[in-house]
Task: structure prediction
Amino acid sequence: MTRKDGFFRGFSPDVMEARCQGRMMARRELCVTDFLKAQGLVRGASVLELGSGTGQTMAQVGKRFPDVMFYGVEPVAAYVEHACARYAPGHAFLKYLQGTAEEIPLPEASVDCAYAINIWHHVPLGGLRCGAQALARVIKPGGCLFLIEPNFRHPYVFIYQALTQGERCFFPWRELDVLKAFFSVERTGFCFLFPEAVRSLTPLGDKIEAALEGIPFLGGSVLYTCRRKR
Result:
């Protein structure tokens, strides 16, 4: 995920945050929140967000779990600095660190679970196994990993990923299979009928999305819940 200008696709932290507003960001936060609630986290538990970007998602999710420690790991230094300045002050439960999927700066078995939103397909192909091993190292045995990734079955998503510079399609038989050496896939789901450019929906649009997003070739994102092998 290295960028010559130090930003992801050239977006400064403020521009990146402005682009990430709207219903899709809110729904991603809700998906992560539902995942974390299902883990039954207790006081003193810890969570990793891999690819925490500018820090806003972790800050929003962290508010819902005041007794849990959140670690955000992000390769872009400017985003980490932004997160530390804007979200960490006054919130001891938030800690942002610079690192990559291949080199996560946390001790062995130090987090109860982890999540990543549109990150795993950005890990260099040659670093996927190293990244999977790093995740398995920091997640406690039996802990879960939650992934939200672009769904290659969706025609729009497939074309967008294939034609956008710096992107690539997420293929389960490639990116996901590498994880299976360390994790078992417990659940798969689909969400987001409408693309990210649609910032809000009418009540009717919400109903249509809820009814159709679970169809494998209509959901723009695929959700994986994976459990760390003991």
